[in-house]
Amino acid sequence: MELIKTGRVLSCCNYYFKMGFGDLLQQKCRSPAFASVRNYAARKGYREAAKKKKVKTVIQKQGWIPHNLRKKDVEEFSGVKRSDEHTKRVASDDVWVTRSYAWRIFDFKEAVECHRETHHPTIYNVPDAQINLFIELNMTTAKPTKFVEKFRKMAILPHVYEQDGLQERSILVFCKTPEQKEAARAAGANLVGGTEIIKDIEKGKVVLPDFRFILAHPTILPEMVTIRGLLKKKFPNVKSGTLGPNVDELVLKFKNGVEYSCVRDEKDLSYGWINTSVGRLNMDTLKLEENFQALLKDIIDEKPKRPGPFITRVVMTSLPSVEKFKINFEPYLPVDDNADGESSDEDEAVPVKA
Q1: CA-CA-CA-CA torsion for 60, 62, 63, 64, nearest 10 degrees?
Q2: Pairing state of beta strands 325-327 and 105-106?
Q3: Closest by alpha carbon to 253, among 152, 151, 154?
Q4: How is 257-281 classified by DSSP, letter by letter?
């Protein structure tokens, strides 16, 4: 039996050696076990994906990042939001919790006297402190989906005062006639000229960033077209108030005026506010009232064409005191706007259907 088994093994080996490797491979491929063999390559995208999986991602360690530099892409919250104190009930007693009831409304004179008492030499000892105003605006227009854009203006107040933190305002004036140049210099302009100043700017002899405001007379505007690209946003125009026939009045306006800007809440587009000032506590009360009235008139000029109030709330403060007084501003509004039914307790205007 052992010989027979050995002979069978030898015969099988001889059989496979006699057959070529190619014939053997063809015979095996005809069998059912090899019927599902792929005769095409894998997709390139699959190969690339497989290669990416094999690549090891190296995590780089970052150093300590200060808290004020983290999440710069997150929108910063302004911290100012619309007040709802007017919706609360009115207190019937002389003493009440301010956060639970509506604020008491003060006259302008009364609020000034209250601040003078706290800034007396026996208390804060700042008798010449600046009077600041926080003015809330209703930014809605006649169209429900459109709102007033934020703006920046310069208000001319009848009584000039020293403003806190006010930097020196350097003014450049463009005009032609000698009378206009003399009037601009007398008003306080730092540099006055005509075409000769334009040539100096083109040659680089005059440094434009040295001047905060650039004013011009309408007659010289065609000659200034060559330096329009250099002036950029400072190019005189009627909208910004830097272009006008009375050059001396423009210089006084930008030299002594009160600059303020309207900020709009990007999360509540119908709400805006202004932080500005009207004078100092040591000024005469009548002069402060006239400044307050002139400031409100300048703000009302930006009111859109729609019924309802534009100014909704005015709060008076004076540092270092933390007291805030809600002002009754209706008597100081222009007659036409006051007739429309302006109210300090209204915050939203009724939109007009187009």
Answers
A1: -160
A2: parallel
A3: 154
A4: PEEEEEEE-SSSTTEEEEEEEEEET
Give residue-wise pLDDT tens across range 274-298. Answer: 999 999 999 999 999 999 999 999 9
* 8 Å CB contact between 181 and 188: no
For residue 352, the SS3 value is coil
Contacts (Cβ under 8 Å, ≥6 apart) of 21: none
Let me know how many helices (H) and strands (E) the chain has, helices first. Answer: 10, 10
φ/ψ of 327, rounded to 5, equals -100, 140
**What is the pLDDT, as a whole number, of residue 75?**
43
What the block records as the tokens of 46 is: 């699959």
pLDDT digits (tens, 9 = 90+) for 102-152: 888 999 999 999 999 999 999 999 999 999 999 999 999 999 889 999 888
CA angle 77/271/334 to nearest 5° reads 140
Residues constituting the chain: 354
In eight-state DSSP terms, residue 135 is E
CA 30 to chain centre: 78
